[in-house]
């Protein structure tokens, strides 16, 4: 598999390989410091980022390469050049492309026309590099015991909820997603797709609107920001009201297992989706999770460029 576009394009063996290598890069960041010597990786972002940009540039540097960061207004896409032509041009200059943008279809089209690996560093639908960082953090805490624990996501049924479902299905985990009913629930097609995959991996996928039930006996309680770029003021008001009971507080964390942890992909809005006491408390692993953005992007670059990722049929 040339690209990392969606989490459920990976097999469990692919994920384990990526996490093993990311763990090695956590212990020895410069272990492959000549891998990208004299090579360039292009990073293109139409959505602003702190962690993704820092992690991506650092990952390339630790592999011995250089980066070219390209903003949306620095490409000719806005003046009518096609995505396909852009992909072909970038392929002639770079060893890989890391992209963070809005439409998943744009990333898919870039990858289809590029001859180099394309890594999806976030779209409105997917966030596979975050998923790798999340599950490496989980593995550090609990080992590979994915089948006998409960992993819960609460909040908006957004791209992170989709990614959480996908990675859980790939790894054969018991994943619960708790959201309000209606428009803030995860996409039904994603739920159906991940349930079908989970049947073949020994996992279970549960979507519920009962947040307390979802958090009870969970080893992980995970959340994300409620408001996304592009949300209207009407959506923001409606979403805040619908999600109020899904805020992760000490009361919800107390329903988790005694060794349960709190996770968040960041940035966080204390007092909205999570209380300050939880995210800054002893059960929070968000800073280690954020650190692994670098290790996992570094691992993805390393193995995609080498051609080690088998993938499953899309």
Identify the CATH class of the largest domain.
Alpha Beta
Count of helices?
Answer: 12
In what order do the strands lie side by side in the largest sheet? 7-6-5-8-9
Structural class designation:
alpha/beta
* CATH third-tier fold name of the largest domain: Rossmann fold
Number of domains: 2
The Rg value, from CA coordinates, equals 19 Å
CATH architecture grouping of the largest domain = 3-Layer(aba) Sandwich
Share of helix among residues? 40-55%
Bulk shape: globular
Strand content: 5-15%
Q: Can you write the helix and strand succession as a string?
A: HEHEHEHEHEHEHEHEHHEHH
Sheet of most strands: 5 strands, parallel
Name given to the CATH homologous superfamily of the largest domain: Aspartate/ornithine carbamoyltransferase
Number of strands: 9
First-residue to last-residue Cα separation: 10 Å
Which residue ranges are poorly predicted, with pLDDT under 50 across at least 5 consecutive positions?
none
Mean pLDDT, rounded to whole units? 96
Overview of this protein structure:
It is a single chain. This protein is of the alpha/beta class and 314 residues long. The chain folds into 2 domains: 7-126 and 292-306, Rossmann fold (3-Layer(aba) Sandwich), CATH 3.40.50; 130-289, 3-Layer(aba) Sandwich (Rossmann fold). Helix content is 43%, strand content 14%. It is built from 12 helices and 9 strands. It has a 5-stranded parallel sheet with strand order 7-6-5-8-9. α6 (159-171) links the parallel β5 (150-154) and β6. α1 (12-27) crosses α5 (128-142) and α3 (83-93) packs across α4 (104-113). The chain is globular. The model has no long low-confidence stretch (mean pLDDT 96).
